[in-house]
Amino acid sequence: MLLKTLNFHRFKCGFAPVLRASRLFSNSPPSDVQQPSDESISGKQVKPERKSVVPSNSRFIYPEFLPDPKIEWRNSLREKLERMDMIQRRKHIDIPEFYVGSIMAVSSSNQHAPNKATRFVGICIQRLGCGLRANFTLRNVIKHVGTEMKYQLYDPTIQKIEVLRLEKRLDDELLYLRDAPNEYSTFDENMEVEYLPEGAPVPVNPEMVKLKPRPWRARWERKNMKGLADLGLEDRFYERAEELATPWEKYDLMKQYRKTIPEEEQKEIFAEVYSELHEVEVMRKKLKRKKVFIKPTKNV
Amino acid sequence: MNQAEVSQLVSKLRIRINPRHKNLKCPEGPQGRLNKLRKTVNALFKYERLELNYTLADETRGYAERLISEAIRHGDTHKPTMEMADYWIEEKQLIHKLFKVLVPRFNDYQTSYTMLYRAPKAYPEIVYPRSVLELRGNPFPAILPQRSDQRNFIHNVLLDEAKKAYRAEKYEEITKSLEEQRDE
Amino acid sequence: MSKIMKRTVFDLPSSFRITFGGPMVLQSRTAHNVRAPRIKYPLWYLQRERAKDDQQLTGDNRAFVKEAVHDKFGMPAVIHGISTYDVRSPLSEDSVECLNVEWNPKLQRTGLIARKLGNYPMWLDNGKSVLSTLLQVIDNHVIKYIPPGEFNPPRKPYSCPNHKKPLGCLLVGAESADPQYFTKQYCGLFYREGMMPKKYLGRFMVSPEAALQPGTPLLASHFRPGDFIDVRGKTIDRGFQGVMKRHGFHGMPATHGVTKSHRRGGNVGHGGEKGRIFPGTKMPGHMGNRYRLHKGAEILRINHKYNVIWIKGIASPGKTNSIVYLYDTILPLRKHKSPPPFPTSKVADDDQLIDSYKEHVYKFTDQTITYEEDK
Q1: Are residues B166 and B93 part of one domain?
Q2: Which pLDDT score, from 0 to 100, does residue B26 have?
Q3: Per UniProt, which keywords does this protein have (chain B) (predicted)?
Q4: Measured between alpha carbons, how far is A210 from A180 in angstroms, rounded to an integer?
Q5: Nearest CA of chain B to the CA of A186: how many Å?
Q6: Peptide bond preceding B124: is omega within 30 degrees of 0, i.e. cis?
Q7: What is the pLDDT of residue B77?
Q8: pLDDT tens by residue, A290-299
Q9: Which SS3 state, helix, strand or coil, does residue C137 take?
Q10: How far is B3 from chain A (nearest CA, A)?
């Protein structure tokens, strides 16, 4: 029985990895996310009809809610307190769903700026950390100078986070844009928000990046990047890369296990935070509707 | 701070996981280490009970558990799982055993799929701690003695009597309190 | 006379050296013929864990033992986020005299036993980020009070400026546990007070005015946000380490003709008259696994529901999930300015107050930080 349900879960995650959060939220029945905490242990006894309301792709939308998998540093109470603080912060700021490769705009308080606030537009090239330390890096070229800004996701000085274009790239990290020509990371500061149709999956931008000639900041030929066009190196570089490759690592089951949070624990975590997150989402929608309602009256 | 990997989902293992892997003496590096472990995992699926050095057995246990849990989770139609089984099991007929014998056997288990016991060492030849690693539900006689005469041990007999006396006292108190309530 | 003198000299610890004035100075170089103090363990220094053996109890009997334990001490319960036992009879009869004295800066309060939970960032009201360490006060109860006259430790606090003050000893325990796992003599420590055995014990020197009844619970509200505390714990054991890691030496260059000594310490001695290695020279050796004190850590926030204290900085010794001891700070300029809860805080009846913050610390329930325009 469980095998079937698990397979079903897997199917969902594997083939429709990212759906719009808003759609999922509106589909799922509100409140009552009370789950038996020992469901993970006594998974066999649970009837298949009692499916959790938590969407299975939460781990892609809220990866920072999953704790650091390093066993020595784990403590359940600390993780819980951290999650509570994160939710408190999310009540004051809309942190939308975004991925590496999305184009974002962040407005933050800045004591030294003329209006005491700055807005930075750029492509998200890296997303790191978990809990309150979660951060992301935006990159843009401003006045022919490559500029990067690293933001803490839960920093209280951040006023607004907008996703101008929601999309993914082929890689989980776009640090190679630093070695690419400026065209690849130039974005208009006055860019309009591009809306995706409701319920559409997040598109993957298959753009291949052609790097500038060496020297580079890293030996990209050794990193197995999918989004890099032909690097145009001599054979000896590729030979050396092959020598240093570790193809056996994908078979190291325990190494993988130590880097992940098991499914049962993830379910517990998201069952705990989901109701609150859902409430926040509903609140925000109401506010948005109000705003929309106000606009035409202003015009009239 | 690191971030948990979200690209794949794994089931929780029901064994204690060491924070870090244990080093096995291996001149060939990490690849040689996996080759070494592959032999023992293969042998464990073949013989179902092995006597090994403790370090090796402890490391092997994790890999065997993970392989079984992956097989239970995805079944034999899942390509990556089959690839993994193909890598870890050298004798290919044992792949059939994994999916057709072990998966049905462990499907309803609420505990770990393997057991690890400490074994005596042969002093003075062997200095490293030894252990016995086995798959649960194997056909061999149990390693720990099954005491059917437990309840005849003196402390169990005494505790039985104490329990009776304790219960009797408790019931008496309860009846007393009930009677008092009635009187009131 | 000389015999008596000799005896006194011998029986005193080596640190208690008597100077007889004039020529009869007992120098530290000759100290090796003075006997070291005989180690006398305190009364709570007992064999704690029971020898592990399978008792071959039947299932019924095992359940019965558990039932008897729960009947006697209380049912297992989660209190303040810790799985412990709902102990019914904590406060025993007044065995300790309670002097209702007002707090004054010369009095010494008890400390707490806490577990280090890890660290995460907090923000101040001006938008600055600070790292904080979380310490959870784990189910602390006073076990015993020994008045100053009766407490006679083997090693006197000779170098401590407080040694002239008569200080009593307060024994505090943390984390209740099933008595089945401990020896009979260890359980006996807690028996008279009607408490479950505690996993961890701590000794705190207190003024007699700050003595507490055995069984008094100690909570995180013993301290207030904005107070400064000292955190004592065992540092992470790093094993045998070189000078670069152990003492922060710079090592030597990687190139420019340097061979085989990139991480070595370099010269350790002098020549001529000083041709020896001075005692205390920094060299490779064992690092960590020592008790160390992190002094003057500021409390940023206290959670009264889970008894968690956030302190500023990540310098407190020990790994995550290790045990640390918390004291009022000994730094003279950071001592309490206003009276703290004395001798300790009371258990609050209303559970309204969950979080209390220090001034100028950003609360996560607050609005986004914005700066005002200059005028």
Answers
A1: no
A2: 87
A3: Ribonucleoprotein, Ribosomal protein
A4: 6
A5: 28
A6: yes
A7: 94
A8: 655 555 555 5
A9: strand
A10: 5
- Please check whether residues B130 and B158 belong to one and the same domain: no
Confidence class of residue C164 from pLDDT cuts 50, 70 and 90? Answer: low
Chain B environment of A246 (Cβ under 8 Å): 30-31
Q: With contacts defined as CB-CB under 8 Å, which chain C residues touch B159? A: 57, 61, 64-65
Nearest of C111, C110, C114, C130 to residue C122 by alpha carbon = C130
pTM of model > 0.90: no
pLDDT band per the 50, 70, 90 thresholds, residue C37: low
What's A57-289's CATH class?
mainly beta
Chain B neighbors of A40, CB-CB under 8 A:
12
In this structure, the answer to whether residues B92 and B128 fall within a common structural domain is yes
Contact between chains at A152 and C129 (C-beta distance less than 8 A): yes
Helix (H, G, I), strand (E, B) or coil at C309: strand
| C 315-334 near A (Cβ less than 8 A) | 319-321
Q: Is the domain defined by C98-154+166-240+286-357 classed in CATH 3.30.565.10?
A: no
How far apart CA A203 and CA A60 sit, in angstroms, is: 14
Provide the angle, in degrees to the nearest 10, between the axes of the packed helices A76-90 and A263-299: 10
Residues A123, A101 contacting (CB under 8 angstroms): yes
- The chain B residues in contact with chain A (CB within 8 A) are 1-6, 8-13, 17-19, 21, 30-31, 34, 59, 62-63, 66-67, 70, 72-75, 84, 87-88, 107-108, 110
Q: The domain containing residue B71 runs over which residues?
A: 6-135
Burial class (CB in 10 A: 0-12, 13-18, 19+), C154: exposed
Give the helix ranges, DSSP H, for C158-280: 184-191, 243-247
Hey, where are the domains in chain A? 57-289
Contact A72 C364 (CB under 8 A): no
Contact assignment for A88 to C365 by CB distance below 8 Å = yes
**Distance separating alpha carbons of residues B45 and B98, to the nearest angstrom:** 8
pLDDT digits (tens, 9 = 90+) for C271-282: 888 888 888 899
* Mean pLDDT confidence for A149-175: 95
Dihedral Cα C208, C213, C219, C225, nearest 10 deg: -30
**What amino acid occupies position B84?**
M
Q: Tens digits of per-residue pLDDT, B127-173? A: 899 999 999 999 999 998 877 788 889 999 999 999 999 999 999 99
- Residue C28: is its pLDDT beyond 80? no
Interface test with A, best of C307, C364, C375 (most A CBs within 10 A): C364
The predicted model gives C140-164 an average pLDDT of: 75
Give the C-alpha separation, B92 to C266, whole Å.
59
Q: What is the CATH number of the domain that holds B85?
A: 3.90.1030.10
Contacts of C68 in chain B (CB under 8 A): 166
Mean per-residue pLDDT for C62-71? Answer: 89
Report which of C54, C195, C81 is spatially closest to residue B144, judged by C-alpha positions: C54
What percent of chain A is modeled with pLDDT above 90?
68
Contact assessment for residue B159 and residue C57, using Cβ atoms and an 8 Å cutoff: yes
Of A189-203, A282-296, C221-235, C299-313, the least confident: A282-296
Number of Cβ within 10 Å of residue A269's Cβ equals 22
Q: Which residues of C touch A134 (CB under 8 A)?
A: none
Burial B163-181 (b: 16+ CB within 10 A, else e): beeeeeeeeeeeeeeeeee
Report how many domains make up chain B.
2
